[in-house]
Model the fold of this input.
Amino acid sequence: MGLLSFLYNIGLQFKKSRITPLRLEVPVISIGNLTLGGTGKTPAAIALAREAQKRGYRPCILTRGYRGKAKDSCIVSRGDGPLLSATDTGDEPFLMASVLKGIPIIKALKRYEAGKLALQKLNPRPDLFILDDGFQHWQLHRDIDVLLIDSANPFGNRRLFPEGIMREPFTAIARAAIIVITKSDMINAQEIAKIKNTINAYTADIPVYHSIHHPALLVSAKGDEHSLKLLKGKRFHAFAGIANPAHFETMLKKHGAIIEHFTHFKDHHMFTQKDIDRIVHEAGDAGILTTEKDMVKLKELSIPDNMMALRIDYSVTGDFYDNLFRRLA
Done:
């Protein structure tokens, strides 16, 4: 461990030692990861919320709303669509509020305060909280920690920030109740075995599942849905402001899209009309593709009719949900 990572770890452990987690009145399930960047937490949180709803729970998602301008605790959605703009909420809460029906979203830097706000203001009252990106949010007690590990880049160079992408040391793996290796279809069995060997070096008792992020359909700016068959053999200019744009590009090509140009923006980039005008100019007569997370941030901009977003579904193997909800019983 280098000096900078050593100092970071000292600060991390000192911070944890000074925090006593606060407990909400209803159970909390956290979705999180060990590394910086995207592991598919938002699709996982959406899928978990929908599954909880199917099983008779009244779930509510608590989120930080990274880069959202609204600083106070606020209700992003009561379950019937966004109440604030993507600029105020951040892209991920806005996306969740746009696609989830009957499932409220609360944004706050302190998720305990978000939970209290939900219990006081929402009707019907939630009976389950899903903590988005919560593995390092020690201020709130969690009943279950679900740890996601990105198969495409599970641990980076295996060093702590700022020398690597690890948010915590490997020993934190043991804190998880359940582990999911995401995008597991993107790597082979030997690479999955290596990830499991790392997990087993720190715990042998935590169940490990695999998940897949797979394209479902295309969505226009007006909300019209189209088959993925529209991609096959057609020319496109694609763009994205996400942590792992290469995975997005790979999915498009797998479904037959000819990607003539791909414009990368920083993760959580808030697009301007100038950005869109440049993309339209570069695309020429080719179609334009982006992610659904990026598309929701463009609603207040002027965008062309030939721009579509790829909607992603999340599925997880085995008895993951049965195992998870059994732990709440």
Summary: The longest strand covers residues 208-220. The chain has two domains: 3-212+315-326, 215-314. The radius of gyration is 20 Å.
